[in-house]
Fold this sequence. Notes:
By secondary structure, this protein is an all-beta fold. 2% of the residues lie in helices and 13% in strands. The protein has one helix at 80-85; strands spanning 23-25, 47-49, 71-73, 102-104, 127-129, 147-149, 174-176, 184-185, 197-199, 208-209, 229-231. A nine-stranded parallel β-sheet has the order 1-2-3-4-5-6-7-9-11, with no helix packed on it. The chain has a two-stranded parallel sheet with strand order 8-10. The chain starts with 22 loop residues before the first strand and ends in a 12-residue tail after the last strand. The model has no long low-confidence stretch (mean pLDDT 91).
Amino acid sequence: LRLNKNALKELNSDTFNVPQLKNLDLSDNLLENLKADVFKNMKKLEILCLANNKFSIKSQLNFSFLINLRRINLDNNFVGPDIELRSLFNPNGYGLPETITAISLSGVNMTDLPYNFFNPVDKSLKELTISNNSLTKLFKLPLCLEYLDISYNPIKKLNISDFPYDDPLIYLRTLKMNGLEITEVPKNVLSALILFDLELENNKNLKEFSNLTFGRQILRDSYDFYIKNLTLKGSNLSSIDHG
């Protein structure tokens, strides 16, 4: 059901009586509030898009009725401060099911997250987009992530502990780190990953990219190098470390 790009400001609890609905798009409207019981007759819903509305910390969103939800998009709503205070996964918070597989929180004005914030979905979350916020450091990343976008956050430094070797993200294949404030990509920082796609575009302070970023030299040890797409476009590299 697509209701996106309209001028909806309010939905009543009896608006939807669609128990078989799997996909609902309410993006690009003027919604400021959604009572939890709006979703009471949509328990089979798997995909919900609420991007580009007017939600804020006052909205007190709750999705506890959506027990089969797999993907949610809350991009470009002012809910970051609320997310930092209330758990995404507690029934008294946002109430997202712990079986959810994809969460998008781009441009929600998030500044800080507890280190273990995503622990409840450590074994289920596969896609996480948290770009265009004000995060200065990473948190503990869910172990089963396949796709991660942390672009356009004021992160100044990448640490090996962000992608630890003793607790590796063995499923992560796509990593987007565009528009950060990093000055280098140090050696071994990505050595625990088996990436197919790595984006490092528009990092204007980036001056160094170590030949041992992946723990081995890209050309010399190419037999076990899995990268298919690597982009450093629009950064400030003055030289390439050739080992």
